[in-house]
Design goal:
- The complex is a heterodimer of chains A (about 750) and B (about 450).
- Chain A contains 31 helices and 21 strands.
- Chain A is an alpha/beta fold and about 750 residues long.
- Chain A has an eight-stranded mixed β-sheet with strand order 14-13-12-15-16-17-18-19, with helices on both faces. A seven-stranded mixed β-sheet of chain A has the order 1-2-3-4-6-8-11, with helices on both faces.
- Helices cover about 35% and strands about 15% of the residues of chain B.
- In chain B, strands 1, 2, 3, 4, 5, 8, 9, 10, 11 and 12 form a ten-stranded mixed β-sheet that branches. In chain B, strands 6-7 form a two-stranded antiparallel ribbon.
- In chain B, strand 6 and strand 7 form a beta hairpin.
- The N terminus of chain B is likely disordered.
- The chains are: A alpha/beta (about 750), B alpha+beta (about 450).
- The interface between A and B is medium-sized, with 18 and 27 residues.
Chain lengths: ~750, ~450
């Protein structure tokens, strides 16, 4: 054969290549940068790799080159079949290029993009030469749509292999044939599940669902690195499959057991389908409260295809895709996506010393939660408490968190045990001399925090970082007791730590850059989305939450019951209602927080009567943890009832509602505007560095409605002027709690001023 | 010039280290499980090997200081199978015995434990051996059922007993079978072997060819009477067994017809290129050189340096020989080229070929073993020339002694001086030992 010239940059003219190399092992480099192909016998192996990125996306360049390569491959009669593979480890195609969609100015423009994608994939689907998609790593969005247009799919069992249609999370739908092909391939229920939740499907599940035909094991080291050899092996198997299809040794129809056959048959009846549509629609409406347009559009597209045929289906898909891309909801969600990516980077650089040993003080909910997410990353973790009982409970929480993962089969029992071996539970300070960082999660009391800080500083090495997990105490006040305030930082985790994505890091004037870098690096390693904010009472998140909760208490005093309050907040898009949130947080914690911030900020943080919360605490109604709060909690979490004794308490703090500002919508805006105004004030005061972190913090830490994109995006979209106008109405009734801050007023005055461009 | 007169190969004897010798070694015929041995118990096989050793060496039944056996799947009734077998074989009841387990290198561990005891001066003569009986394995009640049954023992009243019996559900009745799978990774060994072969790019054809070679060489060795370690066994109620029964040279065409056994449909490891479930036992007599000579024996070989290694049980499960070989050679001050006889345990053809490739790779040596260069691949004309585990069979606990005895016999037959034994084992472990011919 002719020596291969894989990767060489020599440009060979088309005619010359055809005469020289047709049918011979060779490699083509036709000045293509993203896609190339190699002919192995009668199989063309098309390899994709974006030279400018860690992941492959279906960018315009990628599409253009892919079309050219496909044309050439289809035109070469020596080629009988095709394998499509990525040469990037860990990524097949991660999706379409979001920027490409964002660059579009109109619905029509996006619809055209969708139609072009549909056309490319239609050609793939109708290819006379079988195309085998060889998938290793993420195969998402447009990447999945590409793969399911191919005749056959082989995927590696790698943990990185994930198939999914995450478009819905960006307020979009699978716009390149996904809504049409998926239901046919895996059935309506599975297709809806994938498209409406956007969740990733792992390889083994994908095989069971019929999304891929064959699985390939990942390989260990051989004569090459595991990653490299695994991709080669995948390619070898895929080539065999491609030949097998041509030789008719491999059937393209999926193997089905009797149950699947029966299921498919049942699904073919239109009344069964209609039943599914209506069930799914109801479920979607219940979960989205009608605030998210994408899920309903997805159902609409599937329905159009199933009921009126492919032409109508594809048309509906492209048109709805165009419409969705222009919605504020989609823009907000895309903004959050970008924000999240930004908050997964450490803008403070690489810390001098990596945290290899972390010590945590306090084995309560938060402390144990931090321990869990730390041991999972193979970091030695010391969990210290002062009583054996508390320690036992904390260690059990870590075990339970990991054991639940074992039950869900995301880790084996062996992996659970091996992860747990990183945890040491203890009552003394032994081993602290090796700690690189200490996070205290003890009771929220300055005197106790000072005591702990002094004890710890006596035993830790000089370069060890001391982080305080607090929701409200100012870090500089805690650091006042420190001999080395440059090593003191705040790390505000959210409960439950293993589920909540946000970590709010608080720096004082004295905190060194390296200390911050170290805290951010640990947070990122723990899988957190990290925002870094300035010091002050309540920092950013607690400070936004407190006025909203104060308003919620006032609303209750005005006679709105907790259920109604919850439905007003969830109706606005919060995942958890205000009353439930207070119960989850703990009424004592909420009261403590309100009192502290009330002292710091004065009457602006007033509204509801703090005594109401205090009375509840005095009666033992501390929220979920005590079994009673605004609601009563029995063994079954749902349905929960309102605490019958609450009425009496509320009665004694009763306030007369002013009908001018008490409609459902008014109540919603009273709650939201105080939140948003405080967020903007945080930016104005420099507590926040930028609006992006403000939006991320509010959505991921406090559940601010994701479709609004965060408080800053909300102001941009809603209009600062309109918000100010509403606030002024409320201000007339309630006073300074609704006085818009200067930055908000500035934005209201000049409509061209936006937080996000 | 004195150095010109030196023999090409020096002895590996070290000052201050006792010379330890293999006096002799025997084994029962290795039979595919479920055949003639089917109705026996593990200690019956071990007993037969011990009796064979007694007969072969003529050692007095009280001249042994200690007995050690290796086994993998334990029969719960005879968990210290060494003791039961020793008593049954008629050894003095004053000889202590214990059982060790280290997966497929269990009898290697038995032998090196013996070497250690002798080197430490605690013993002079030790019998080591191994046994595996796959015709019967402990199949347990489910954990739920066991719990119920144990509670039943403690129940005091009839009512309590009936209540417990009444709590038994059909799910309780599902039995628990032992699996040849790693506990840590839950992967079966065959599956891991298939992935290993793929990682090293070992083709199905190469594996089938190697398996065919193993069977052909074993057949020839059997036909030529070279497998002299085998002692006949009169199985109660059945015929005398005198030959291994799993040696079946096939043809490439026949072997190519088999479907992959573990990785489907594209895997390369099949029933024909894997070792099979085997019943069998082995035994060796190990002594200090002085003791052997004092008792009037002509030892067969010196047992020299040995090493145990371990590595990642997931992706390098069966690469023990690659890690152990350079390490043991280094200890002995030898090069691969100095070795005249190689006996490697053949778990799977793919595993052997992968190890050969790993040992021949500078990249692998540098990247994974922290060595400066490769050790090299053993030449096949010195390698497993009388067959191997693929063809002779592989009673997990017994294979190690077979390898060592075979090296001793081959060194004698082929006139070599150094032999090397290497084996992989579940858990990602491995072993190698250097054996030196006893001067003729």
């Amino acid at each position: 054969g002719v020596a291969t010239s894989c990767g060489c940059s020599v440009q060979i003219t088309r005619s010359r290549r055809n005469t020289l190399f047709s049918g011979i092992h060779t490699c083509c480099t036709f000045a293509w940068t993203h896609v190339n192909y190699e002919i192995k016998g009668d199989v063309a192996v098309i390899r994709i790799s974006d030279p400018n990125s860690k992941v492959n996306t279906l960018s315009l360049q990628m599409q253009k080159e892919m079309t050219e390569v496909m044309d050439e491959v289809m035109g070469n009669s020596a080629i009988k079949s095709v394998v499509l593979i990525s040469s990037k480890p860990g990524c097949f195609i991660a999706g379409a290029d979001i920027n490409m969609i964002q660059a579009c100015k109109s619905t029509e423009e996006v619809t055209r993009l969708s139609q072009e994608g549909q056309k490319i994939f239609e050609k793939i689907e109708k290819s006379p030469k079988p195309i085998v998609a060889a998938i290793n790593g993420s195969c998402l969005g447009g990447g999945l749509e590409f793969a399911i247009a191919c005749q056959y799919r082989v995927a590696t069992k790698s943990k990185k292999t994930a198939l999914g249609t995450p478009e819905v999370m960006l307020g979009l739908l699978p716009g390149a044939g996904g809504t049409q092909r998926l239901p046919k391939m895996i059935g309506l229920p599975n297709a809806f599940d994938m498209m409406l939740t956007g969740r990733n499907i792992r390889a083994d599940k994908a095989k069971k669902m019929g999304l891929v035909h064959q699985l390939v094991d990942t390989l260990g080291p051989g004569l090459k690195s595991p990653e490299e050899r695994t991709i080669e092996y995948l390619e070898e198997v895929a080539i065999d499959c491609a030949r097998g299809i041509v030789n008719k040794k491999l059937a393209l129809t999926k193997e089905m057991n009797m149950m699947q056959k029966i299921q498919d048959h049942v699904m073919s009846y239109s009344f069964v389908q209609n039943r599914i549509y209506s069930t799914v629609e109801k479920k979607v409406l219940k979960q989205t409260k009608g605030l998210y347009p994408a899920p309903m559009k997805i159902i609409e597209c599937v329905k159009a295809g199933m009921e009126q045929g492919p032409d109508a289906g594809y048309l509906a898909e492209s048109q709805n895709f165009g419409k969705l891309a222009m919605t504020p909801e989609s823009k907000a969600l895309v903004g959050l996506y970008h924000g999240q990516v930004a908050c997964k980077k450490n803008r403070f650089g690489v810390p001098e010393k990596e945290v290899k040993t972390l010590a945590i003080l306090g084995a309560g909910l938060i402390g144990a939660g931090i321990a869990q997410v730390t041991v999972e990353k193979s970091i030695n973790t010391i969990l210290k408490d002062i009583t054996e009982e508390a320690l036992n409970q904390g260690q059990h929480q870590v075990y339970k968190g990991l054991n639940d993962k074992t039950k869900k089969k995301s880790i084996t029992s062996f992996e659970r045990d091996s992860i747990l071996s990183n945890l040491t539970g203890q009552l003394d300070y032994s081993g602290f001399e090796k700690a690189d960082m200490v996070i205290e999660a003890v009771f929220e009391d300055l005197a106790i925090k000072h005591k702990v800080l002094k004890e710890v500083e006596a035993v830790i090495p000089p370069n060890c970082v001391f982080a305080s997990n607090t929701a409200a105490l100012a870090i500089k006040d805690i650091a006042a007791a420190s001999k080395r305030p440059e090593k003191v930082v705040g790390m505000h985790y959210f409960s439950p730590v293993d589920k909540m994505q946000l970590l709010e890091i608080i720096t004082t004037d004295k905190t060194s850059k390296d200390t911050t870098a170290s805290a951010v690096a640990l947070g990122l390693k723990q899988g957190k989305v990290v925002i870094v904010v300035g010091d002050g009472p309540g920092f950013y998140t607690t400070r936004c939450l407190a006025p909203m909760l104060a308003e919620a208490v006032r609303v209750l005093q005005e006679g709105v019951d907790p259920k109604k309050l919850d439905s007003l907040t969830t109706g606005f898009g919060f995942p958890v209602g205000a009353a439930t949130l207070a119960d989850e947080l703990g009424i004592d914690v909420a009261a403590h927080m309100a009192e502290n911030l009330g002292k710091a900020f004065g009457s602006r943080f007033g509204g509801g009567n703090l005594e109401l919360l205090k009375t509840m605490v005095a009666k033992g109604f501390k929220g979920r943890k005590s079994g009673k709060g605004f609601y009563i909690y029995q063994s079954e979490p749902k349905p929960k009832d309102i605490n019958p004794e609450l009425k009496e308490i509320v009665e004694s703090y009763k306030m007369m509602p002013n009908p001018a500002v008490s409609s459902d919508s008014d109540v919603q805006y009273r709650l939201i505007s105080r939140f948003v105004n405080e967020a903007v004030l945080c930016l104005q005061e420099g507590i926040l560095t930028n609006p992006v972190e403000g939006d991320i913090g509010a959505v991921f830490g406090l559940g601010f409605p994701p479709f609004l994109g965060g408080p800053f995006r909300f102001v941009d979209n809603f209009g600062a002027d309109k918000l100010v106008e509403k606030m002024k109405t409320f201000e007339e009734v309630f006073g300074n709690q609704f006085t818009p801050c200067q930055l908000l007023l500035d934005h209201a005055k000049d409509p061209s001023r936006k937080f996000h461009n | 010039r004195a150095e010109w007169a030196w023999p090409v190969k020096k002895t590996l004897s070290k000052t201050g280290v006792k010379n330890i010798v293999l006096v002799d070694g025997v084994r029962t015929p290795f039979l595919q499980s479920g055949t003639t041995y089917a109705d026996l118990m593990p200690h019956d096989l071990a007993r037969t090997a011990l009796q064979g050793l007694l007969n072969r060496t003529g050692i007095p039944k009280d001249a042994v200081d200690y007995i050690i056996y290796g086994t993998v799947i334990q029969e719960v009734k005879t968990s210290n199978v060494a003791r039961e077998a020793a008593l049954g074989a008629g050894f003095s009841d004053r000889i202590p015995a214990h059982t060790v387990t280290m997966a497929c290198i269990s009898s290697n561990q038995a032998m090196t434990t013996a070497v250690g005891m002798i080197a430490a001066g605690q013993c002079d003569a030790v019998v080591a051996g191994g046994v595996e009986f796959m015709s019967d394995v402990p199949i347990r009640h489910s954990r739920k059922m066991r719990k119920t049954m144990l509670s039943l023992n403690k129940a005091k009243t009839l009512g309590a007993r009936l209540a417990l019996l009444g709590s038994i559900r059909p799910a309780h009745l599902a039995p628990e079978l032992p699996a040849v799978a790693e506990f840590s990774t839950e992967e079966t060994m065959g599956h891991s072997a298939d992935r290993l072969a793929a990682a090293f790019g070992v083709s199905r054809r190469e594996q089938d060819e190697y398996a065919l070679r193993s069977h052909s060489l074993a057949k020839r060795a059997q036909d030529e009477g070279l497998l002299s370690d085998v002692v006949g066994f009169k199985v109660p109620g059945k015929d005398i067994v005198s030959k291994d029964n799993g040696i079946r040279p096939s043809s490439m065409e026949q072997m190519a017809k088999l479907k992959p056994a573990f990785v489907k449909p594209h895997g390369t490891v099949t029933a024909a290129n894997s070792s099979y479930l085997t019943d069998g036992a082995s035994a060796v007599l190990i002594m200090s050189e002085e003791k052997a000579l004092a008792l009037g024996y002509k030892p067969k070989a010196y047992l020299r340096d040995f090493v145990y290694v371990s590595q990642d049980p997931k992706d390098q499960l069966l690469l023990g020989p690659s890690y152990a070989t350079p390490k043991v050679l280094e200890r002995s001050g030898l090069k691969l080229a100095d070795i005249d006889v190689f006996e490697f345990h053949e778990a799977f053809a793919g595993q052997i070929l992968s190890n050969l490739k790993a040992m021949d790779s500078d990249w692998f040596a540098k990247t994974y073993m922290g060595r400066t260069s490769k050790v090299g691949s053993p030449p096949l004309d010195k390698f497993n020339l009388w067959g191997g585990s693929l063809s002779l069979g592989h009673p997990f606990g017994a294979t190690g002694c077979r390898l060592v005895t075979t090296v001793a016999h081959r060194l004698k037959k082929e006139g070599g001086q150094y032999g090397l034994v290497a084996a992989c084992a579940a858990g990602g472990q491995g072993h190698a030992m250097v054996i030196e011919a006893y001067p003729q």
